[in-house]
Amino acid sequence: MSDTQGVSYNKVDQGYFDKRGLRRYAGVWSLWALGVGAVISGHFSGWNLGLANGWGSMLMATIIIAVMYLGLTFSLAEMSPALPHTGGAYSFARTAMGPWGGFLTGLSENVEYVLTPAVIVYFISSYMAGIFGTAPAYLPLWWVGFYIVFVGLNIVGVELSFKVTVVITLLALACLVVFWVSALPHIDFARWAMNVGEGGALLPEGRGPLLPLGLSGVLACLPFAVWLFLAIEQLPLAAEESVDPKRDMPRGILAGIFTLIVSAFMILWLNPSVAGIGSHQLAKSGEPLLDGFKAIYGDGIAKALALVAVLGLVASFHTIIFAKGRQIYSLSRAGYFPSVLSVTHGSRKTPHLAMMLGSVLALAVMFVLWFTLGADKGAAVIGGTLLNMAVFGAMFSYIMQALSFIRLRSKLPQMERPYRSPLGVPGAALTVAIAVVTLYFQLSDPLYRDGVL
């Protein structure tokens, strides 16, 4: 059959779906851990680059981006129990805007979920190479090893996958809490956090202006503030593995975003305020949390602290592999990707083929860049351009998901909604507006444009 949008449909029997079944296991806390774990690595590093524009600029940008994510997550909290399908963003957009809207949204998320773990595993491997003293030439072996371990854990079963997610998410959060408590006796906010002056100059005595670059500094910080919340939107992908999605999905999503908001503002306040570091220095750091720990406890336990920093990266790596498998599975089951990719494991009921192919594709991209560009340049592209590609996919999907929410409110007003967003259409519209502005300023960065192209 075909419809007016030029899309052909094939009829399938019950056997098609029997081979593509998932197992229900996740409750509220499993869903909370999945959402928080996916994001938590952004609280360990990445966000700090925005401090080059001044601490006040980063604060204002974080407030704006937090508002955007609140609008998004409240919209997801309404749509996910109303349409509890593993497709998540794809299924919302398809219901609201038809097959092509679903395809574009699903494809943008696919870019995000395939490439983000590749970048994360690169950073994990860099840490591990430093800890164990392995040569840079052996980094690809670390990549393969981590993919084998964590894809394997996700294939073994949804029960094990969620148990691991809860444990590593709690450990990563515990690391952050230990840092907050440790930092409090060692902070001088005015002296260190406020040491960026006009034009981004270093102020040795601190006490600089709140917005040293004015409004342009705030806008320039928006892409970096995204790191503090990026990937919370993956939670609806677990809808068909939730025991009671109509009850648990909204609770898990909202508990996750409010946890992340608290953590984001704590790390933004304390990390730049630690004596001896400051916003100006932290803006150039690849491991700001590790620098904070070193300033407090000294360099003598650097390797142990590096392992602490790896925990946040591992939490996000594991949870986004989970999301990648479900996302590819859902697009395959719907017929957008080859149908074989949605076949689930006979006894484990996990989308093993989807996770394996997505991981092989990510590794293939990494290996091509590594060996064609050389280790040094390849590393820069993996750590920069691939990451920008993933973020672009995410931002586009946010716009599509918020538009889907608005469209569903008008197109299907009578649809059963176990949870209704208190922010409603205005909240979703604000999400679209902030996402568009953020995307514009991301595209103003030449390196980011390379990734998009």
UniProtKB/TrEMBL annotation:
Its main location: membrane. One of its GO terms (cellular component) is membrane. It comes from the Bacteria. Coiled coil: none annotated. Signal peptide: none annotated. The keyword Cytoplasm does not apply. The keyword Cell cycle does not apply. Pfam families: AA_permease. It is a multi-pass membrane protein. The chain crosses the membrane at residues 26-46, 58-77, 113-132, 138-157, 164-184, 210-232, 253-270, 301-323, 353-373, 379-400, 421-443. One of its GO terms (biological process) is transmembrane transport. Residues 48-443 form the Amino acid permease/ SLC12A domain. It is found in: Membrane. Keywords: Membrane, Transmembrane, Transmembrane helix. PANTHER family: AMINO ACID TRANSPORTER-RELATED (PTHR42770), MEMBRANE PROTEIN (PTHR42770:SF7). This is Ethanolamine:proton symporter (EAT family). It comes from Roseateles toxinivorans.
